Amino acid sequence: MQLLLKSVDFAARAHRDQRRKGPAQEPYINHPIEVARLIVECEPDTPEDVLCAAILHDVIEDCGASRDEIAACFNENIADIVLEVSDDKALPRDDRKAKQIEMAPHLSNSAKLVRLADKIANVGAMLTDTPIGWDRAQILRYVDWAEAVVAPCRIVSTGLSERFDAISRDVRAWHEAEMQAAEG
């Protein structure tokens, strides 16, 4: 438990100036906490290292932390998991998105748990706090992409897979209802 709280503290400090992209401008730290919570709810026996990695999953790509810094503050295993799920920000956005699909089958089971829970949280945000400026088509493209990313990750958790399917269905149903309302 001490290591988990240390990861929350580290991530909160790293993300202190960041907000989510939706109109609520939620503190960014809420996202990694949600990712860890989703894992615990569906896989209650998940090792603490994986939960710490879930909390820290965006500190390399979004905050400039290094793998070595995470290893020194926590341990090698946590650092490796975080690195596995970190995008290379030197790549263009479309290349990073393609790389997530390409690498998903090769992730460790621990990283697959984090990746799956991350996509549940992000797809869920499409219903509760859609990023400013995103239209319905962009939201659906995101859900399609997220489905491709999580497809090889599903093997690690039936519960998380079912949650992903449910939230994806909800987003698609919302889209259909919006389309029908627009057609009048």
UniProtKB/TrEMBL annotation:
InterPro entries: HD/PDEase_dom (IPR003607), HD_domain (IPR006674), MESH1 (IPR052194). Residues 28-123 form the HD domain. It holds the Pfam family HD_4. CDD domains: HDc. PANTHER family: GUANOSINE-3',5'-BIS(DIPHOSPHATE) 3'-PYROPHOSPHOHYDROLASE MESH1. This is Phosphohydrolase. It comes from Thalassospira marina.
